[in-house]
Amino acid sequence: MRRSLSLAAIIVTALLLQTTIFADVKLLGARPELMYLVTIVIAILEGPDSGAIVGFAGGMSQDFLLDAPKGITALTLTLLGYTMGQLRQYIVSPSPVLPVFLVGGGTFVGVLFYGLVSFLLGQLDTGTLNLFRMATLSAAYNAILTPLVYPVLRRAFAGSRSRKLRW
Amino acid sequence: MALRKRTRSTRLLVVILVSVSLLTITVDYRQGDSGPLASVGSAALAIISPLQEAVSKVTHPIGNFFSTLTRLPSIRAENERLRNQVADLQAQIAIVASNEDRIKELENLLQIQASLGKNVRTTGALVIANGVSNFEWTVSINKGSSDGVKIDMPVVVGGVDTTTARLVGHVVKVSPDYSIVQLIIDPDSAVAGRLEQSRQTGILTGQGGSDLRMGLVDASTPVAPGELVTTAGYRIPGVASSLYPPGIVIGTVSRELDNPAALEKFVTVRPAVDFASLDYVLVVLSSGSG
């Protein structure tokens, strides 16, 4: 219960930040994708099921709030959360910069996937080249933000997980 | 065993979530902006927008700061452009102001021209240069013999604030397109002047940078500082006449020189014209009387 509440709080916070502070920040035509960042970080920390759930809930909320074509972000982030959670289990590396690379790569692939689905639905407003540019920039911004977000989320989940068995 | 069960349930979860997502996409795609999903979206927006507003109030300055940072180069360029624009506009304002002064001055010149009388022909001229020598007080004007200017013609000026003709000097040298005017403060200049109250006449000679000196005034004449001195404009038919028409303001009495033993009185007269800022002048081409 407590964990669900923290997840909900994190999603709402990410949504609020994305639509307020990051709505103003647009570097070279692209902005950070906070929901992608949160989904990937939680998938890394908590595994594929939490990743998929957060991705779905966060993506769906964002779709409904941002007046975007509904469901595409949810689909993207569900798959992204699940994949990153699975991937994390196969990578054995103590490197502290691993999350930075995972977030960067995951965001890049995620944005491209979102673009692909939008394209298939005929709702992609931009060209392929620009889509790649946006994916690259968003991935870079998210990677830069990771060292700030990752420790906060790890701490939040270390608290909510304390009574559970660690493996 | 437990791990496999967990993996299976995770897969099931993902399949369900993906299915719901795809369903949402399909429903939204088919219904567009009018379906139930759209109304759910606007309801969600209504719930979260007060929160957004609250957060926005706190974070907007931060966002502004960052977006300002990212737009710094363009802001700098814009700043430069605006500065240049301000400089341009200030220059234009200065030009407009000086043009207004000029217009006023020219209007006054026109009135002076009219006040000199119908028969008096005049021509306006622009002062183009000041005298080159320290011992000559002259100015060059942009009208010459081709405009009818001749030697000894009087030159007067109006001003921004007055429509009274004030004496500048007379033409001493003429070429086709420009002339040289000797100012009344030139030491070689002598003008017959009349004290406005006592109607006594005298001769005003230039003293360069300082006030004019008026001599040959009757010793018993009462003179008050501030008294107006105008041109006397005497005329002895067939013999001689003064260069200047009568009634043109020369200046005001500034001081009476104390000399009880002398048979004549000397007073100093401050010229009414600021010779340092001469701009437009009027050359009197004919006196009207002959």
Strand order of the largest sheet of chain B: 1-2-5-4-3-14
Count of alpha and pi helical runs of chain A: 7
Distance between the terminal alpha carbons of chain A, to the nearest Å?
21 Å
The shape of chain A is: globular
Secondary-structure content class of chain A: mainly alpha
Q: Oligomeric status of the shown chains? A: heterodimer
Which regions of chain A contain 5 or more consecutive residues with pLDDT less than 50?
162-167
Number of helices of chain B: 3
Biggest interface pair, residues each?
A-B, 38 and 35 residues
Number of DSSP strands of chain A?
A: 0
Residues in helix, % of chain B: 25-40%
Could you describe the largest sheet of chain A, including whether it forms a barrel?
A: none
Question: What global shape of chain B is seen?
Answer: rod-shaped
Radius of gyration of chain A: 15 Å
Mean pLDDT of chain B: 82
The share of residues in extended strands of chain A comes to: under 5%
**Structural class computed from helices and strand pairing of chain B:** alpha+beta
Task: Provide the β-strand percentage band of chain B.
Answer: 25-35%
Helix content of chain A: over 70%
Secondary-structure element series of chain B:
HHHEEEEEEEEEEEEEE
